[in-house]
């Protein structure tokens, strides 16, 4: 049963918020790929787009919070909902930070590591996308959350493995130490999206149990 069965306005706002986060994950994936392909215009366009999406997500989150308090909705779950929205919003904030760091530092990524960064970007994207599905389930039918959360943990672990393999390959190469260190940082930078997704998943697991008891 929907958590907001008595308020279609809040339900619509949360749906739009989650759509925005999901779109931000897509922009992250396309932005990373554009950078690796040296498609400068497409990459810069992704930064502009993620800025708009981040702003939209912030507005929607504040609107939900205002509506919950002004209409005294679900006081027993209000803190959980607001905490969940805050941590989900961290995903799109981290996406923006990640892409901005590429724009600021312009790391030179040798061709031999191209595939590794692409795979890492894909795994992080999949983790973020999966947690949006799980979060949407929480608001519509908390009993379905458990059936979707495993995908978030799967892709987060996959991202960890890809990142570890990539960093080992980087430090086994003949690159200058400073270059190796920078490339390691950007592996962590891309992987961080999956970490934010897992943080949301951990909260979801607890909140879903609370709703189902």
Shape: elongated
Helix content: over 70%
In angstroms, what is the radius of gyration?
Answer: 18 Å
H-E order: HHHHHH
CATH overall fold name: Methane Monooxygenase Hydroxylase, Chain G, domain 1
> Beta-strand percentage?
under 5%
* Average pLDDT rating: 91
> What is the level 1 CATH name?
Mainly Alpha
Number of strands: 0
Low-confidence stretches: none
Note the total helix count: 6
CATH architect. name: Up-down Bundle
By secondary-structure content and strand pairing, the structural class works out as mainly alpha
Number of domains: 1
Topology:
Blueprint: H1 8-36, H2 40-70, H3 78-105, H4 114-140, H5 145-171, H6 177-212
Mind explaining what this structure looks like?
There is one protein chain. It contains 6 helices and no strands. The protein has a single domain, classed as Methane Monooxygenase Hydroxylase, Chain G, domain 1 (Up-down Bundle), CATH 1.20.58. Helix 1 (8-36) packs antiparallel against helix 4 (114-140). By secondary structure, it is mainly alpha-helical. The model has no long low-confidence stretch (mean pLDDT 91). The protein is elongated, with a radius of gyration of 18 Å. The protein starts with 7 loop residues before the first helix and ends with a helix. The chain has helices at residues 8-36, 40-70, 78-105, 114-140, 145-171, 177-212.
